[in-house]
Design goal:
- This protein is of the alpha+beta class.
- It contains seven helices and eleven strands.
- The protein has two domains: 108 residues, Ribosomal Protein L22, Chain A (Alpha-Beta Complex), CATH 3.90.470; 110 residues, no CATH class.
- Strands 1, 2, 3, 4, 5 and 6 form a six-stranded antiparallel β-sheet that branches. Strands 7-11-10-9-8 form a five-stranded antiparallel β-sheet, with helices on one face.
- A hairpin with a 5-residue loop joins strand 8 and strand 9.
């Protein structure tokens, strides 16, 4: 598992695709999304391309970021190169803050598992609203699995699980219930209403805080969840 970080540079997407230019893979909505969202998508694609080049999986060419394709269902998203599945098969998940983007990247080994990542900076808001998305018992379980954490890390875990399950927040955050599993980095997850009552899935969870000069600290979490 790798996390690839990059900055969101205001105006980068517009500079790459000036008004009147044909829409490309970095501007998949042809200008119908807001400028900030387009810049986030642009940064994510470039972070992914740079990571694949560093790993030696794709060549470092001027149009590398344009030749990478993204396919598959939301929970198990795969990477293509020139229209063919990349070998070894890789899957990814993307998250943004206002000024940073993070891509989680891992081998898509069987059995299939969903992958989700999230990053957030709203520390005070999460601390005030823990009761809306989690419980102190879940925060304690996460602490035992991942070390020192704050409510914002728990929110990131819930967001990452929502992506990894493929359900999103059509299922409210409090329905993703975390339970201790014992080993470091492991929890079990019960998704209320998405299976038999009391059914728990094993999940691999990573959570931490990224610090960078001139930026607020960023909480992040990655979740790896079996699809069945």
């Amino acid at each position: 598992m790798r996390l690839l970080w990059d900055e969101v540079r205001p105006g980068a997407a517009r500079a790459a695709h000036p008004p009147g230019a044909p829409a490309g893979p970095d501007d998949p909505h042809g200008g119908f999304t807001g400028a900030a969202r387009q810049d986030q998508r642009y940064a994510a694609r470039h972070a992914l391309a740079a990571g694949l080049v560093r790993l030696g999986l794709v060549p470092d060419l001027p149009d590398t970021h344009r030749r990478i394709g993204l396919a598959g269902p939301a929970a198990v998203r795969r990477i293509c190169w020139d229209g063919a599945a990349l070998r070894p098969p890789l899957q990814f998940s993307i998250a943004h803050t206002a000024d940073q983007v993070v891509v989680a990247l891992r081998r898509a080994d069987p059995p299939p598992a969903g992958l989700g990542v999230d990053a957030e900076t709203a520390w005070d808001t999460a601390a005030r609203n823990l009761h809306r998305f989690g419980t102190p018992a879940e925060l304690d379980a996460l602490h035992r699995a991942c070390g020192p954490v704050e409510p914002l890390h728990l929110w990131c875990v819930k967001e990452a699980l929502a992506k990894a399950s493929g359900l999103g927040f059509r299922t409210p955050p409090k329905r993703y219930r975390l339970h201790p599993a014992g080993p470091p980095g492991r929890l079990t997850v019960e998704i209320a209403g998405a299976g038999p009552a009391g059914h728990r899935r094993p999940a691999r969870i990573r959570a931490g805080t990224r610090t960078a000069t001139g930026r607020p600290p960023t909480a992040w979490a990655v979740a790896d969840l079996p699809t069945h």
